Amino acid sequence: MQVAVVTFDGFNELDSFIASALINRCRKDGLEAFITTPVPVVTSMNGVEVTGQRPMGFVTEADVVLIGSGVKTRDVVADDRMLAMLPLDPSRQLIGSQCSGALVLARLGLLGRMPACTDMTSRPYVEACDVTVLDAPFYAEGNIATAGGCLASQYLAAWVITRMLGEDAARAAVGYAAPVGEVQETVERVMGTVHAGEVALR
User: Fold this and answer.
1) At 16, is the secondary structure helix, strand, or coil?
2) Which segments of the chain are extended strands (E)?
3) What's the confidence (pLDDT) of residue 112?
4) Tell me, what DSSP letter sits at residue 84?
């Protein structure tokens, strides 16, 4: 089971790395995340250079595709060549977006009439795509999920792990990363948020 964490130039480190790190806690169970980039090396919004683990073509074979955010997302959605590199299929893939990644899903026509979560800076641009933006950190319908706020990437990761391996695996991954002395409350908060956001699966 493979996860493509799509990471563009100008990416937000928290968005890509938290999700991939949490998911990779489940590598021994067969679930593995890879930083997936359109060029061999991308530079974060804070100047951190990262070599992609997989090229963009990997998104077609991945079981899960997570679209990360960054300061250049509006450039991405204005580039038809870049969007053409994302032939996503929610009928066979889990698809998620982090913050401004919702703008990518909107431009790809994947959100339809479903509302979405995003960050405050990206909100007006997502709304300009006729998408209702929720004042919430996480929302999912079927195989599509969106998260808003950098640290909401933990919810996106927990959703992926739950859907692919079950809730026990998600609880274990979140618990491993939780602050010492706050493990139980962190696990319950994260899983509670994921369950509350999965309205279409109740």
Assistant:
1) helix
2) 2-6, 32-37, 41-43, 49-51, 54-55, 64-67, 94-98, 138-141, 144-147
3) 86
4) T
In terms of DSSP bridges, do strands 64-67 and 2-6 run parallel, antiparallel, or are they unpaired? Answer: parallel
Q: In this structure, what token pair is assigned to residue 155?
A: 């919810």
| DSSP string of 138-169, one letter each residue | EEEETTEEEE-SGGGHHHHHHHHHHHHH-HHH
Residue 140 confidence (pLDDT): 94
Those residues of the chain that have pLDDT short of 70 are 200-202
Burial of 107 (0-12, 13-18, 19+ CB in 10 A): buried
User: Are 65 and 163 in contact, with CB atoms under 8 Å apart?
Assistant: no
Q: Which amino acid is at 191?
A: M
Check residue 200 and give its pLDDT: 47
Closest by CA to 191, choosing from 73, 27, 22, 33, is: 22
Separation between Cα atoms, residue 124 and residue 25, nearest integer Å:
35
**CB count in 10 Å sphere of residue 29:** 15
pLDDT at 76: 86
Alpha helices by DSSP H, listed for 32-166, are: 73-77, 80-83, 101-107, 123-127, 153-165
